[in-house]
Amino acid sequence: MNPPSLPGQRGANAWLRKLMDCPSVAVIAANGPTAQIEVGGVSAHAWWLEAGLCVGLRLELGAEPAEGWLDDATLSLAATPAATDDALAIDGEAWLLWHRYDHDIEARQLEERLALQLALARRLAESAQTAAAGPGSDIGRLI
Description:
The protein has 143 residues and is of the alpha+beta class. It has a single domain (14-130), classed as 2-Layer Sandwich (Yope Regulator, Chain: A). Helix content is 31%, strand content 29%. It has a six-stranded antiparallel β-sheet. It is globular, with a radius of gyration of 17 Å. The protein starts with 13 loop residues before the first helix and ends in a 10-residue tail after the last helix.
């Protein structure tokens, strides 16, 4: 991936301060418009772009997801109106769930929306584990 282009210098570090103001976020390292962070204990990346602040949460998939998982996950995101600013990307061996946040978002709102992104990342990871395990047997689950 190419590094993002730098927006204007006005408020260049405001995005980083906004992240630091979120109780669930720990900034590990920052360099220019990028930062390595943790959100709720989950490894993540943040990029400050002209279009907004983008946060990519690492999906904890465990085993290799089943072949149809990526199709199911991307179709689910495409069919969800609230996920128009979401994207899945692979970075080496890791899958990331990216979300774009507007520059003018307040830290309190960012914290709330990061919690939603974290919940979605966990749901996607769970669906990958379910898909990798196969259909299994429903005997005993119905009782």
